[in-house]
Design brief:
Blueprint lengths: L1 E6 L7 E7 L9 E2 L10 E6 L8 E10 L2 E4 L3 E4 L10 E5 L17 E3 L2 E3 L9 E4 L5 E5 L9 E9 L6 E7 L7 E8 L4 E9 L2 E7 L9 E8 L4 E5 L2 E2 L3 E4 L15 E4 L15 E9 L5
Antiparallel strand pairs: 1-4, 2-3, 2-5, 5-6, 5-7, 8-23, 9-12, 10-11, 11-23, 12-22, 13-18, 13-23, 14-15, 14-22, 15-16, 16-17, 17-21, 18-19, 19-20
């Protein structure tokens, strides 16, 4: 796990330590940054914590020491997964632990939180997922490093508060266009089914594919979309969906097939206005993105 925080050195060289443990006694060996930080504004700090036990709650806090004294940050807790997940080809990983949208894959695709509110996850752990409620709510990654991938997969835990309109769970787009985007996982509000929507501006065409399962509100679903570059597959709670082509074909295209993409968004889309933001009304609780087809 990667631990994150922010420290303001107040112009003084400051030693930063992450105190860790399974309780607020922080009984595990402290993790020290290699070099002191300085400056007059909040500096992001992070360190990797290894050797974690599955299905275990851990606590950490930041300890900052300089010539003015010692300051401790708030306690933050997170719970490790009950089982491992594949890491080969992982290009973005968001647990939302501590109410932040940091990428834990090590590739640096951190998200900017806009409007979305940190809330309890599917295990009732506080500040472990994000709630989306308005057209301005989103988690935005500008110019992520995976937009040239020709195949990939995305997986997420999602709960919808209502099912009365089109809602995007994740998308890639071009902020300078409203006809160049890919709705990776979205709700088709007319059928209450998960769908994907690939919009190619050159020539103007679209692939619109729907799944077969009719969803219910206020229920968590585990959604997985995969592509080998020539065909999409969709899974809900581990079961492969029968796909229906609404328009176009099951081309299996991935990000590199669209020119000019410059953003990845969770809970919405980010395109050139005017357009109606297809914001999510619900929660995203963990999201993983790969540069290969999962099997």
């Amino acid at each position: 796990a990667v631990l994150y925080g922010t420290v303001n050195p107040n112009y003084l060289p400051t030693e930063v330590t992450f105190e860790c443990g399974t309780t607020t006694s922080y009984e595990l060996p402290a993790l020290n940054l290699q070099s002191p930080i300085d400056g007059s504004t909040g500096k992001p700090v992070s360190i990797t914590m290894t050797g974690l036990t599955a299905n275990t709650t851990y606590h950490f806090r930041i300890k900052a020491v300089n010539s003015l004294g010692t300051t401790y940050g708030d306690d933050i807790s997170f719970t490790t997964n009950t089982s491992d997940f594949p890491t080969d080809g992982l290009v973005a990983y968001y647990t939302f632990a501590g109410g932040i949208a940091q990428d834990l894959s090590g590739t640096g695709n951190h998200a900017i939180v806009s409007g979305a509110v940190a809330t309890a996850d599917r295990f009732s752990e506080s500040n472990e997922s994000f709630q989306f409620s308005t057209e301005n709510d989103m988690l935005l990654v500008n110019d992520p490093g995976f937009l040239n991938n020709s195949s990939g997969s995305i997986a997420a835990w999602v709960k919808f508060n209502n099912l009365n309109r089109t809602q995007y769970i994740a998308s890639v787009g071009d902020a300078g266009s409203n006809i160049n985007y890919f709705g990776l996982l979205r709700l088709d509000g007319s059928t209450n089914r998960i769908s994907l929507y690939f919009r190619d501006p050159d020539p103007l065409k679209r692939d619109w594919i729907n799944g077969s399962t009719v969803l219910s509100a206020n229920v968590y679903y585990h959604l997985v979309l995969t592509s080998d570059g020539s065909m999409w597959n969709l899974y809900i709670n581990g079961v492969k969906e029968t796909l229906e082509v609404i328009e176009g074909r099951n081309s299996g295209k991935w990000f590199s097939s669209l020119p000019g993409l410059n953003n990845f968004v969770m809970g919405n889309s980010y395109l050139l206005k005017p357009y109606t933001p297809p914001y999510l009304s619900g929660k995203i609780d963990e999201l993983l993105l790969y540069n290969r087809k999962l099997s």
